[in-house]
Amino acid sequence: MSRALYMGDSYLKEWDTKVKSVKDGKFVVLEDTAFYPTSGGQPHDEGTITLEDGEPVKVIYVGKFGDAVSHQVEPENVLKPGDTVHCKIDWDKRYRLMRMHTAAHIFMQVIHNATGALATGGQLGLEKSRIDFSLDDYEPEKFKGYIEKANDVIQQDLKISAIFTTREEAMKVPGFTKLAKGLSPDITDVRMLSIGDFDTQADGGTHVKSTIEIGRLIFLGAENKGKGRKRAKYTIEP
Questions:
Q1: Model pTM?
Q2: 16 and 123 together in one domain
C-alpha cells in the first residue's frame, strides 16, 4: 500500500521517500506519495523524482491501481526498488486544480440548494472545467446566476477542513455526497470535506485552505446533453 500524503496535506510540495517497486522500468510505486492520481474527474499531478546526486526523472502520469499509486516516469530504467529519492510536484498545475476543485464543490452545492440536482459527471481542467447536473430544464441563464452565487460564497473567505470517518457516520450527514451515482461501495473509511458551514461532503481530492484562494469563477457556457443531464462550463481567473 502506498501512503497517500495528499489526503492529509494538499500543500505538500516536496518530500523524501523510498522506491517500493518498479515495473517495466517505468511504473514506479513509492512508499509515500503526494502525487495525486487521476481520480474523480481531477487530473493527475506531474513533477520529478530525483536520486541523490542524480538527474530528475519526470513523472508524466499517476494512476491508482488497487492500493498502489503508480507513477509513470521518463526516462526509464533509472529508478530501482530500495532507492531513496526526493520528490517534487509541479505546483503551478496542482494549485490551479485545487482551486478548480474547491470551486466545483461550491458550484455544486449552490445548484443543489436551489434545485436538488446532483452531479452526474464532471472533469476538472487547467483552462476550463465542466459539471453535468441531473436537471431536466435547460436554462443557461440560470447557470450564470448560480455562478454569481458561488462567487458570493467564495468572497466569504470560508475555511476548508477535512476529517476521516466511517461510512456509517458519513451517511448520517445530509447531502454527504452530491454525486448522482453515490459513494462507491468499496469505500469504508470516508474523508469528509467541509467548506465552512456551507457544505460538507465526501471527497478524496486536493483543495485550498480557504475559499478566497479560488479567486473568481467565470461562466463559459452550457450544453444540453439530454434528459436529466445539463452541462455547465466554467473557469477561474488566473
A1: 0.95
A2: no
